[in-house]
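Example 4.3 (complexes with small molecules)
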Amino acid sequence: MIKVKVEKLQKSFGSLEVLKGIDLEVKEGEVVCLIGPSGSGKSTFLRCLNRLEETTAGTVIVDDNDITDPKCNINKVRENIGMVFQQFNLFPHLSVLENIMLAPVDRKKLTKAEAKQTAERLLATVGLAEKAGEYPPNLSGGQQQRVAIARALAMSPDIMLFDEPTSALDPEMVGEVLEVMKQLARDGMTMIVVTHEMGFAREVADRVIFMDGGYIVEQGTPAEVFGNPQNKRTQDFLNKVL
Ligand code: ADP
Ligand code: MG
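Answer. The structure with magnesium ion bound is encoded below.
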């Protein structure tokens, strides 16, 4: 089953053309890693998938909903798309548990009791059961990002988008966050991950996509893209980062 179908997607900011025609299909359970130089449009692309950016042209279909259609109920679609950013954006004045319970209760997906039970279960899966009553400023960056992942999962999304989830972390905390993401991938979550963690992409991705200058320049399995890149720009990029 196709979860995400993007056709001829273009996005401009004023006269700056950032996405110049992106085509992509992502199947259920697939893990796609997006790599590419800074400024190549990776974040913009991800943000177009849940209409955090309005598209300029083309179509974006998520779970059979054309989200570029003005009549689309985008809030309904967004409930099934979890997003995790570089900055964790937790509410500092709410406990870890309250942060995770907020959206499911607010969007009336769950009662308070159900939301609490779900939050506790998710906290355990990200290895933070004992931090339920803690406040975000008292947690490390790696712990906060794991809470942010649990918070996204609390809405029972069927697609997870990650935008450089480990880029703001001290190096010693990167592993614990990637471990949670690996488990999610093993559990069959459909994931699109913008990352500079080439080791993660190599190990976990079903498909690696190299973006540059607003285009998908090259894509393939990790073995293909990392082991035998065809495009000069992919080769140059990988030579710099590997
Ligand atoms: P990446 O995530 O690959 O580093 P981005 O998608 O963040 O790239 O940015 C691609 C280009 O779009 C950059 O030139 C950036 O400055 C520009 N850009 C991103 N968001 C905006 C915005 N809201 N307004 C104007 N320009 C933007
Ligand atoms: Mg970015």
